[in-house]
Design the sequence.
């Protein structure tokens, strides 16, 4: 209904609007106008509506709520919640107060988690993509197997990992302790310091096939002749990778590193499925920290303020990243 | 090229803005319409023919099982009153979020179940209908219910936000054969006895006790009782948190020491949060556990009722009374009416039906809980040895968790703090008065001031 409304209004806005007699002349002109420039926008309309409803409007309300003191006392009449000004933001950034301190702790945990996960995923992805570049028997099968983690439903895979990490009956301890005797005691993977590492391992397992897939596609565009010419000039494998493969993959790398960074930084599923709504402090990722502030402590104002801060941080990081990498790229292009 | 791009951009922006306005107008109209049709019509009509929505919590072995149970029961209600009931059984992981969303939007069920520990928090939102004396009269009066159950239906001094539906209490479950094999004649009545017995029972890969260390809610229920036995509460009369008192520290330390110092519970229990405690108990891996209304779950693991016994949870000294004699929180489920309902009378009729003596017998009998309606408790279904003990605990030695608005933050901060202390204990780190106090201090500092 909404999609057709503007289209009907357009002729009314014209100089002849409202005169039925003009209808006959108007229609061809209107169709002509649509044909000239309006049609693409008309076709974009459903996407624009969806974008508004799914992203823009909720985001606007999220920002609005961050300036309100929206606690459990007001959620039933949330529009009557008192304005809080910048109080929610002040509470979040006061790093010497408990709430700010915990948010900062959560930020550092998330940053370490993201850097480790993205770094390892990229390394594994590029190594596998290069190794599978040359044709050999079974290459298709290995490629398929490598993509399995990417194809599995996240929840099912995460629950399986959680079973594997259990201290008493988990597969990980069975292999490390019972069979290989590497650890003197059965380690805890889901509580304490190790919970951070188990989360990183799962995240890398989940993300690296994406890096692998994108880099493999990128490698298809590197002409074989370049390698052959380099080999004739006496370049070894490492030199070929450094001088040909990596520069050629630069545009692909720029995108996958950014996308992986954003996905991992905002990751909610991994800690939530592995640890529930109260993860160990060592694995307190920022997305779940914000969820707790909002939905468990019922302080939606504070949770929204933290979300807006997270959004700002990611926007700044993205802008700087794109600026730096694009500049580097255009220089190298010259 | 550039001008064409910028003019397109401009056109697109204008279109988006126009759309935004159109949508806003549409949205406003839609709201008005829905309020118009929802609010009118029904008032003045007879109740028969109305349809109400009921959000039920998951009480049985599965959501499907609950759906069947409730479909059969609500069919009786429809037959009696002509009111149709649309039942939706919601899992515990989603229930509170669904209620919060309903409270925010005003679009929710007519009748709903809530965990009784949420009563005061949800009461503070103003989303639930207060049960004043007049409202209680429509369901037969407040006196029909056990006082402890009523006390856990909202903050003291205010009209309850809900009506008790199912009650449960904690008991100490013990494995009769393991006790006999270890030469222990009677189950423990004091904590010292429990540790002594549990030490005897801890051998050959089996443990005296199982605890659900990573489950925040379980941790809260136990440290609440242990602090209460020392005469301490987690909130003062003004509703301010008092997490760091010496009694509270001692309560938490005693609970964590089952793994840390006494070593009568397995280190692995520190990561239990999926009811593995019941599995360990029912499979003979642990000789004792403190749990609420566990009979159906134990049975599902193949342990029969004659293989285990239930007694009240121990106290510091034998035969303690008053606060020192508290052995359980008042656990249970309450039924509430959503304040925004446009079918208030039909909703009250449904609550009356669900809390009627016959329905209380039927539903609590199915779910293994105890009826909060006193009259229903005498039914033979609730005279099994374990339920008799738990009913007596509810009557004599159970206290409601703090009924304050910030109870949910208490659970969310202290529960994980205890979990983290268990993790320290499991990793072999020392758990001292100082480390417990530090953890509780940090939790208290994050409470809303």
Sequence:
């Amino acid at each position: 209904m909404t999609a057709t409304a503007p289209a009907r209004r357009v002729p009314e806005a014209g100089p002849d609007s409202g005169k039925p007699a003009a209808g006959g002349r108007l229609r061809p002109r209107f169709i002509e106008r649509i044909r000239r420039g309006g049609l693409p926008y008309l076709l974009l309309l459903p996407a624009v509506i969806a974008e508004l409803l799914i992203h823009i409007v909720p985001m606007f309300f999220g920002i609005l709520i961050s300036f309100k003191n929206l606690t459990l006392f007001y959620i039933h009449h949330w529009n009557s919640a008192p304005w809080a000004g910048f109080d929610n933001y002040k509470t979040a950034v006061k790093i010497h107060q408990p709430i700010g301190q915990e948010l900062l702790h959560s930020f550092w945990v998330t940053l370490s988690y993201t850097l480790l996960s993205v770094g390892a995923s990229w390394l594994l992805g590029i190594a596998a993509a290069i190794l599978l570049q040359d044709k050999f028997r079974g290459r298709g099968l290995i490629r398929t197997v490598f993509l399995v983690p990417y194809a599995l439903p996240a929840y099912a895979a995460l629950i399986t990992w959680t079973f594997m990490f259990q201290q008493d009956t988990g597969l990980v301890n069975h292999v490390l302790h019972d069979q290989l005797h590497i650890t003197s005691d059965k380690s805890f993977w889901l509580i304490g310091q190790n919970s951070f590492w188990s989360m990183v391992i799962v995240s890398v397992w989940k993300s690296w096939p994406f890096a692998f897939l994108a880099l493999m596609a990128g490698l298809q565009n590197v002409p074989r002749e370049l390698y052959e010419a380099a080999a004739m000039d006496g370049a070894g494998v490492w030199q070929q990778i450094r001088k040909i493969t990596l520069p050629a993959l630069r545009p692909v790398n720029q995108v996958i590193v950014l996308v992986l960074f954003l996905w991992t930084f905002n990751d909610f599923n991994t800690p939530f499925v592995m640890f529930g709504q109260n993860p160990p402090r060592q694995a307190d990722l920022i997305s779940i920290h914000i969820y707790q502030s909002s939905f468990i402590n019922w302080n939606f104002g504070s949770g929204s303020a933290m979300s807006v801060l997270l959004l700002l941080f990611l926007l700044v990081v993205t802008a700087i990243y794109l600026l730096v990498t694009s500049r580097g790229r255009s220089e190298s292009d010259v | 090229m550039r001008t064409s791009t910028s003019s397109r951009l401009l056109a697109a922006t204008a279109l988006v803005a126009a759309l935004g306005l159109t949508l806003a107008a549409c949205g406003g109209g839609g709201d008005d319409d829905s309020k118009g049709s929802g609010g009118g019509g029904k008032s003045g009509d007879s109740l028969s023919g109305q349809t109400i929505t009921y959000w039920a919590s998951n009480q049985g072995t599965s959501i499907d099982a609950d759906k069947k149970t409730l479909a059969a029961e609500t069919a009786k209600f429809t037959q009696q009153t002509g009111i149709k009931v649309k039942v939706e059984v919601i899992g515990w992981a989603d229930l509170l979020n669904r209620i919060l969303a309903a409270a925010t939007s005003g679009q929710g069920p007519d009748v709903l179940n809530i965990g009784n520990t949420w009563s005061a928090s949800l009461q503070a939102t103003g989303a639930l209908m207060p049960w004043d004396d007049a409202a209680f009269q429509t369901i037969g009066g407040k006196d029909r219910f056990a006082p402890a159950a009523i006390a856990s239906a909202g903050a003291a001094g205010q009209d309850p936000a809900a009506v008790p539906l199912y009650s449960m209490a904690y008991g100490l479950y013990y494995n009769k054969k393991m006790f006999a094999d270890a030469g222990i004649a009677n189950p423990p009545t004091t904590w010292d006895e429990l540790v002594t017995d549990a030490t005897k029972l801890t051998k050959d890969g089996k443990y005296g006790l199982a605890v659900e260390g990573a489950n925040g809610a379980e941790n809260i229920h136990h440290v609440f009782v242990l602090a209460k036995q020392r005469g301490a509460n987690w909130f003062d009369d003004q509703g301010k948190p008092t997490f760091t008192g010496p009694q509270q520290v001692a309560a938490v330390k005693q609970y964590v020491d089952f793994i840390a110092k006494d070593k009568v519970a397995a280190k692995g229990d520190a990561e239990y949060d999926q009811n593995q405690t019941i599995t360990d108990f029912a499979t003979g891996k642990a000789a004792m556990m403190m749990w609420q209304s566990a009979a159906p779950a134990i049975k599902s693991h193949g342990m029969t009722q004659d293989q285990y016994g239930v007694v009240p949870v121990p106290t510091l000294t034998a035969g303690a009374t008053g606060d020192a004699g508290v052995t359980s929180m008042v656990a249970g489920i309450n039924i509430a009416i959503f304040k925004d309902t446009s079918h208030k009378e039909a909703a009250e009729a449904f609550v009356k039906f669900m809390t009627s003596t016959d329905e209380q017998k039927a539903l609590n009998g199915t779910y293994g809980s105890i009826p909060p309606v006193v009259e229903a408790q005498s039914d033979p279904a609730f005279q099994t040895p374990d339920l008799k003990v738990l009913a007596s605990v509810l009557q004599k030695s159970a206290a409601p968790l703090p009924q304050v608005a910030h109870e949910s933050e208490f659970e969310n901060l202290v529960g994980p703090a205890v979990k983290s202390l268990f993790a320290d204990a499991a990793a072999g780190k020392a758990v001292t008065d100082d480390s417990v106090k530090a953890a509780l201090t940090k939790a208290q500092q994050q409470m809303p001031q």
